[in-house]
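Two folds, back to back.
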Amino acid sequence: MYIDFSESLKRLRKERDLTQEMLAAFLGVSFQAVSKWERGESYPDIELLPEIAKYFGVTVDDLLGVNRAENELKIQSIIEEFDNLTDEDKKHDIINEAINKYPNDFRLQLRQMGDLAFGKQGADYKKNLSKIKAIYANIQNNCKIDTIRICAKRYLASYYHTLSAYENSGITYKDCEQIINEMPYMRDGQEFLRSYLFPHDTDAWRAYDMEAIEEELGLLCHSIAHLFDVTDESNHIDALIHAVKTEINILNMFYDDGNYGINWRNIIFSYGYLGYLYAKKGNYEKGLQYLKKEIALAKQFDEFDRITTLHASFFEGRSFDKHTLGSTFVASSRVKHLIEEIYPLPEAFKSTPTFQEIIASLK
């Protein structure tokens, strides 16, 4: 059994911005006693342990640091499993069970917040508002890890953006904007800063630079889509086609080896959406051409090993793990669902022999 009371007490006190004097006053002991506890020179009377644990909202085992290293391994395993899943029901069950076991872990709280806001459990957006706000407040007030606090801001801003479209939700875009204004600029992100400031001419710097480029490519494609509002089909169809083609051309330029790394979803779905737009425009030949390309890329992705190495000019030697996109993500199944149920393709287009052939190829 591993016990580290002194480190646990020091961590809990600092997480709540308490001085030794403030804690000592609450417990009715001298601040010198608290100081000795944190240095590991002495321990409190056993009768005090439940009171200290209750004050910090933890269990006595948490306070004592019992099996902390073992618990950390378990939490990391839960986080990896949760992050690699695309099945929303499984994710919900996993995070709820984890929170029951480790209620004070901010990494798990962040994922619970995301599940409530964006998973299937968040379909009724207004229902979870109070719980999401409570988790958010706890993270902002007590968590000292900036990456978790900033990610929680992003979750809440996105959630507020959705709620602002609901009548009588009590949320407007100003609530969303207020959170956005508190967040750092893109240039302050860790990917950019590592690629820019890390010592050059090292393998680590090259890896960081590649990571930054991949992340920026994904953001660039999303920004282009938003600029042209590609999901708003009331826009001019030629403008939408131009936007999607631009995304495809950018990705093909950087991923010239045919392995699209973390942007596989972007490239697959862009070809499919382009096929739909051409079919809607009445150009069935091009519509079928781009849908075939979407299917070919989906099958290529599914046939890849889990871990592959990129050989593109910009990403030579960079490793890609398919599970980055979700361990249960099967591109062919997703594409089949999009083509058959999501894209509102013209009936005349769907009745063509070639279309029937490409659907059959996915079964």
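---
second:
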Amino acid sequence: MNSGTTDGERVAQAAAGLVGARFRLHGRNPATGLDCIGLAAVALARAGLRAVAPHGYALRNSSIERALGALAGCDLAPAAPPAHAGDIVLVAPGPAQHHLLVATGAGRFVHAHAGLRRVVVLSGPLPWPILRLWRPGKKD
């Protein structure tokens, strides 16, 4: 990836390169499958950023504090919408459901879709409320 690109652009490019990978809960390897946390972690790592991914969670969780704690160890900073290329977006698809997507710009998001069993691109406005958003950037 070009060294003249921003951290966010590199994360967005890395996420786009993962489209088509299989879905697997707790998946951290594109060759064997990724879940939404694995997708975000692999995209960050491929962009040269620090990525920490928690383990031991279910598809539905009443509390996501442990996962949010792991995100604090990543090269990410809290940000406000709208999402920019490379931003990690936390949404609520349903009750006790939390899901991460990677913004790739212009209303496009890459995410690990459990129902389709693949990493896919979602275009247009998000169908779920945004709970939090983080912007990539190296931490000192």
